[in-house]
Backbone:
């Protein structure tokens, strides 16, 4: 054992003796370990860092913004504001659908949007 490990062990023993670990949240409960098997090993540290910082993947962030804009649109009564919100909402939906298509996920919304465009063009 090197000197740093010995110092760390002694500090831990001292904290235990002083009762510093006695009332920790989750005491007596099983640890909730993350299953990171779907994340490549070289990306796991970055994944955990972003997750702990509350950063969402791009598609989830877009979904969150779409829901917020839909709620805002439902509460809005002024026509000019509704138009502006609808434009933002349509932009976010389009970005989301394009992102899903790039990732190989075909959504029902994308198919519906695509069919509407095809009907208008024909």
Residues:
């Amino acid at each position: 054992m090197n000197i740093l490990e010995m110092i760390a062990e002694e500090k831990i023993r001292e904290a235990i003796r002083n009762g510093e670990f006695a009332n920790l949240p989750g005491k007596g409960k099983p640890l909730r370990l993350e299953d990171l098997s779907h994340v490549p090993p070289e990306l796991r540290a970055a994944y955990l860092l972003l997750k702990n910082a509350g950063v969402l993947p791009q598609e989830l962030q877009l979904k969150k913004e779409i829901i917020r804009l839909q709620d805002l649109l439902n509460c809005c009564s002024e026509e000019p504001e509704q138009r502006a919100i609808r434009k933002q909402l349509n932009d976010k939906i389009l970005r989301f659908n394009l992102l899903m298509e790039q990732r190989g996920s075909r959504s029902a919304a994308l198919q519906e949007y695509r069919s509407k465009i095809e009907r208008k063009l024909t």
About this structure: The chain has a mean pLDDT of 83.
